[in-house]
Structure prediction request, 958 residues.
Amino acid sequence: MSNEKLTPRNVDFSEWYNQIVQRAEMADYAPVRGCMVVRPYGWALWENIQAALDKRFKETGHVNAAFPLFIPMSFLEKEKEHVEGFSPELAVVTIGGGEKLEEPLVVRPTSETIIGAMYSKWIQSYRDLPVLINQWGNVVRWELRTRLFLRTLEFYWQEGHTAHSTEQEAREETMRMLQVYTDFAVNEAAVPVIPGIKSQTEKFAGANMSTTIEAMMQDTRALQSGTSHFLGQNFAKAFEIKFLDENNALQYCWTTSWGLSTRFIGAIIMTHGDDQGLIMPPRLAPIQVVIVPIFKSEPETAAVMETVARILTELKTTGIRVKVDDRKEVTPGFKFNDWEMRGVPLRIEIGPKDIEKGTVALARRDKPGREGKSFVPQAGLSSIIGDILTDIQKSMLARATAFRDSHIFEPKDYPELTEVVQNGWAYSYWCESEVCEAKVKEETKATIRCMPLGQEESHGKCIVCGEPARNKVYFARAY
Amino acid sequence: MSNEKLTPRNVDFSEWYNQIVQRAEMADYAPVRGCMVVRPYGWALWENIQAALDKRFKETGHVNAAFPLFIPMSFLEKEKEHVEGFSPELAVVTIGGGEKLEEPLVVRPTSETIIGAMYSKWIQSYRDLPVLINQWGNVVRWELRTRLFLRTLEFYWQEGHTAHSTEQEAREETMRMLQVYTDFAVNEAAVPVIPGIKSQTEKFAGANMSTTIEAMMQDTRALQSGTSHFLGQNFAKAFEIKFLDENNALQYCWTTSWGLSTRFIGAIIMTHGDDQGLIMPPRLAPIQVVIVPIFKSEPETAAVMETVARILTELKTTGIRVKVDDRKEVTPGFKFNDWEMRGVPLRIEIGPKDIEKGTVALARRDKPGREGKSFVPQAGLSSIIGDILTDIQKSMLARATAFRDSHIFEPKDYPELTEVVQNGWAYSYWCESEVCEAKVKEETKATIRCMPLGQEESHGKCIVCGEPARNKVYFARAY
Prediction:
């Protein structure tokens, strides 16, 4: 039940987000600190995200598998940077079957180490390469400050882990998966992400290079929405992942890893939602169309419900995800609010007058009020609706892109940078020194989100220190 | 690589099983005791099992969600039988984020308790009922003797958890899901299971009544392959799952739970496999058809590969899961053995002579040697192959059913029972006393697998004690 008004975004964005997640029944707090329950409506969205990504993974030659939840503590310690990065966040099993374990087991925070151990067993020859495996599953990181979807102790994700015979191939794989994430985010979720490279400070613990897709939320904060890492030979050396090359020489593999998690649901909510609730991008929406029948008297009911049933069947047949809300105990107005809260892209209202005229009333979720309303004939409805859903998807991407672009600034100097990052992103030259990076973070809370790909060769001066710089980066406060 | 001969089933069934799982690359031992890695070929089978079940769950009105991996120890203790059943098998997290936890967290062995806690929060009124939620995930039970797929510390499964306003509705749900499992096992996996009710001794810890589907493996041992439990109001009372009924009276819900796990992969292997390896039921097979091109000279290669490419496209278009094995470094004979080990239902061989004649050679996996070979025209191939796959599915079910039925005996007295359960199942009257049940178990290692459904009303004498009995049960040694 969700007819209570949300706290508006401009009053308290954080509170608005928390309310939406709960009232749209996307997720709930679990009775274990920092853990979440993903409710059926939220999980249905995740299933659609999974399907859209999995299709892309398989098209690029990957297969799925499942590796253990538990990792011996000693495995994590084999890669120095990796264990330093993750050890503060570990959940540790010390008792099994009533007895204290000789070696504690870590609940996986990520699986490079256990998968590395298996790859070292499976890979013998260049003929076994590349190995292109993905895993859908849960991981645990002991976070102190948690928020539903954005940061929870346990979360759901996919993690791809690949092994290659050459550095070039592994680098290509890293960029290929970054491209897959970008394509997914833009074309399925209507989230206009910016792909780019992480600074050394912000990279994954154990990687040579990390790449990311960064999205701007409506409070202008950045959300890291997916990452793809080039791991060099770091894990191959730690876990002895070696192969005999074509000349019979023993070599270490080159590996990558890449992941996207339920955090992405937070990106969808905070990119598209408004003060009435969620707005789901049609391509991922669990319910694309909701039909609300409207009637007062008994004879009206029968006629309306007959038409509703016919339209339901017609839409289902064309593959549209549609639901009829025939609840008796609540009014149509209540239902409108309810489905607006849940972000269903399109509503169909069918009443006695529509039966007479052979029409239905449509209401677009992305355009509130009269602007989004139209009356269309029942004949050919599924094709009309298909077109409108396509248009909603397009409009959502256009609106989010316009919002993002109008909040990216190119400050002329450092004082201006410190201002613009309070309500937007700064796109500025950076000299690649960690000192300048740290100074910005300390003084503004903004971090380097990424160095975007495809920059033309250019020369400028670091926005912080004025030294020569070759690349621009985005500075922003982030989730 | 799998051209080594398997230990034959009649020499050492257990060794045969272990070899198949590894050589067909279904699963591997993890470096953590008792845990497994499900390799891509095994996981592809599990994905097909998931799809076939998930479709049936959704058709019967269920939705998916995700509940936390961790359960506070105190939750398990709320249902007395439940904690007694599971406490010897628990993995316990005692350290999180570097600190000792105030309350240890159990890694879920099953989720009745944590889901019960959420249901008590979500369910207020009869209008919220029924709640019909399923979860796909991993669970952990600290088993001492483990075997890949059959019994591992961590395994993958689905667990359905439903809440209802009446006892009758919950009982109906329990039986509906037993029927869903039966339908899946018989019609998708060609595993002729027997659905029935568990004895009180064998039921789920915390249930009023447990039902099961029991399958006979080729060593005649029984494998419990899926279970559906009527939980009465036990968990509703332990977790205060209450609702206001239509008369505004507060009542406890009636709940059920039901699960099927990666153990079912073991059932498929041990029902259908032969001394050459796995035999996959076509409806679930990750690869239904493998094409092996055959050629010696260069000009032959081009012609053969052109036809192979055309047939590949044709079969894919009709939705057949097909793979071309164009490896250069191994012979066709090696490939035949390799795909036989992996149980691909149908092999197509295409050589220069086939190009001349416009034919291909087919080899059925379920009928070794000449019997399973045929030569068919390339024209209309996909329809021919569709028919053959249907026939393989049917033959596999018929063969497994015949094997099962020829190993079910109705012993005339107890001494005969003790004999037949050494190489089969005994179907006998039982007086429902735990003493008789325990005697059989102690003296023969056979347990009561189930009391099958749909028995006609009858009267007999208990095979153990001779007292009056109303129902027959299956006694068998089990996995």
User: Anything to note?
Assistant: Residues 58 and 128 of chain A are 18 Å apart (CA to CA). Residues 13-272 of chain A form a domain with the BirA Bifunctional Protein; domain 2 fold (CATH 3.30.930.10). Chain A has three domains: 13-272, 289-387, 408-476.
